[in-house]
Structure formats: structure tokens, C-alpha cells
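Sequence in, structure out.
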Amino acid sequence: MSLNNQTFLDRAVLAELKKWLDRKEIFALLGPRQSGKTTLLRVLEQWLKQEKKVKPEQIVFLTFEDREILEKFSADPKAYVKSFMAQKTTERFYFFIDEFQYLTDGGRTLKLLYDIFNNIKFIVTGSSSLELTGKTAKFLVGRVFYFHLWQLSFSEFVQARSAQLFYAYQEKNALVKNFLEQEKNFSLPQTDIFREDFKKLFEEYALWGGYPEVVKAGDAETKTIILKNIYDTYVTKDIIELLKITDYAALKKLTALLAAQIGGLVNYQSLARDAQSYWQEIKNHLTILEQTYIISLISPYSTNRATEIKKNPKVYFIDIGLRNYIVSGFQDLSLRPDLGSIVENIIFSQLKFKEPEEYGIKYWRTIAKAEMDFILPKKESVLPLEVKYSSFDSPKISRGFRGFISEYRPRQAVILTKGFWGELRLESTLIKFIPAWYW
């Protein structure tokens, strides 16, 4: 099924933006390039006009990718903003500023404007957290609400594809969510009539990822070209123009090396050797890739036991489609030796998309190589999560999974499968086997 390129794909964060829009705090909408931030601003603009009856002249839309606008704004921000208001100091204005990261000293400038203009709601977007949550954040304490707009989650992807399947997805996902958040047990479904439908969608998502324009494209060639353009634009706009990195060839080489080892431990010395770089540059480039929303690193879970790994992070890509483009990997998943790593990466992305700041996702691995894919902190416990995208005849667990449960005695644990529902109790731990797509 293909979608019209003008179709707006419903995004979960839109409801949050509307909910808090009457407050004075600045909105900073962060996320990868081409995740739909500009489109979302336009939708919010139309909602203000149509539903809130805001006059068009009270909504100002600027993009700092326009060099003329950026130069005028930078020269005198206060005068530039006032020029749109025509002495209307009692009416409420909305300033949408796209690609805000191009403004030098943006945090200080935004603080000044926020403090001067009590009748303006500033909503800014950025594709680099280096500018909006890094060095400029100190100026905006107490003045800004941060929101993330990622690529489409699998839930949003299903919604874009089929209203019928989305309804079925929500029913099953609610069972999983209540089990995790409220420890509410549920009976295993006796039949899952949409199993093959979800498997097909999940494996499409596993190949192409969730960039909105990729999702809307109707054929593989177009999807590939869009991913190429996204990656090329990232290199030219964020790496060369914004961050002024001259040795971008080394960073691209590092990105390719990381794409080939998703879900693996980061070995700085090995990466430095293979990228023909050095340890400190590798560290710096990893920071850049992470803060421009290409990769994410997770650290090991440890309680200071001598047998557990404590240092090296694991690496994942935010969007699996972009990763597959980098490794030229769009072959049928059934033929892929990296299938397990791909699904593990997808599950990581879904975790990050849900609660990027709160989840504190970890992994667990011992020196003896017993491991757990993900450890999620809970109020009084932890939740171990393992991805086993393979066929099950009956519930079974690995030695590493058993070892973690014996050591930490969590109340719940989850194994994500290729369509299998199941349940197993080990000591005091209830283990649920859940199809990966319902996560």
C-alpha cells in the first residue's frame, strides 16, 4: 500500500503539544532530520487557525535555513520580532522557528526574547541536540519544555498502513503495557488472527524503518533514493555546515563500521584502527553521531559485581532503515544473517521513542558472556528483556536469562518472539513470551 506524499501521518506527540500550548514556556521540538518536524509545525499552525481561531497575522513561521532571515534575526532579534507585532502588545502571538540550531548563541537569545515578550509563544525545532540541550540549555532552565519527534514508531507505522490493524494492535499492546507498568497479568490469546499481517508489516518496517517520506513511498527504488538523500543531507547540513567538521570522511567510515555491528559492544581501539583514526577522535565522533540522532549508546547494568562488564557501551541506530542503507542491506529478511540484530535494534528504538529520557535503558553481560539484551529500571525492581525472533514450540529460556533471574529475582521478565505467545514462571518471576511487534 502506498500513501499520498501530501498525507500527514498522525504523530503521537501532537496531542502533547496541544495539551501544553496555552502555557508560556518555550517548546523545543527535537529530533532527526526529516522526521517530520516542519510538517508537524504546519499542522499545529492550521490547528491554531481553525480550532483556536487564532488570526493568521498572529502566527509567524520562520526557518533559519533561509540565510537572509537568519542574518536579519541575528543582527537584532528584538527588533526583528517586534516588526511582526505592529504594537499589538495585548494579543497573543505564536512564533514558529524551524532549524533553530543555526542561530549562534541561540539559548541566550531565546532567553532574552522570552523575558521581554510576555505575549509570545516560541516554538522552535532542531535536528541537533548539541545546540538545544547542550551548551545553550543553561539559559533556558525553567523556560522550556522539550519534546522529541522521532521517526515513526511501529505503532505509528501500523496506523499509517491500516486502521483495522491499528485497532487490533492497540488491544494487544494495551495488555502488554498494563503488564509492564501495573504488573497486571493477562490471559494468553488463544488465537491471533492477524499474526501474519503483523509479521509482514513488522518485517517491512525492519527493512525500511520509519522516516515519514520513506513510509509514504510506494516502491523500493524510491525508498532507497529517499534514504540516500536523508544521509547525504545529514552529512552536508549537520556535519559540514553546522558542526564545521572537515574530516567527515573519517566520520562516515566510523558510521559504516557501527552500522555493521548494531547491538554489539563498542571497542574504541578496534574502531580507531579500522577507521584509521585515534581513540579521542572516535569518542568525539560517537558523541556527534549520538547528538545528531543517528546512533544511540547504552551502558551496561551493573551492581558492582566483579563478574559483570562495567564499561563498554552497546551501539544501536535510531532508524533501522538508514542503517540498512549504509550497509546496502535491503535483501529479504529470511536470508539475512543479521536478522536478530535488526530486530533487537528495532526493539531498542521503540523503547527510546516511548520514553527517551526516563527509561534509562541498559544491557547486561558478564565476563563469562552470559547476557541480557535490555534491562529496564522499575520503581522497586528491574525488567529483563530478551529478543528471540525465532519460532517457539513451547516456552524456553537461555542460560543467561536464567542466570539473571537467579541473581536479581525480578518480578517480571519478557521475551519477544516471532509471533509466539507463552508464559513461564521461574522461582518468583513471571516470564511472558510476546510477539515482537506488540511491544
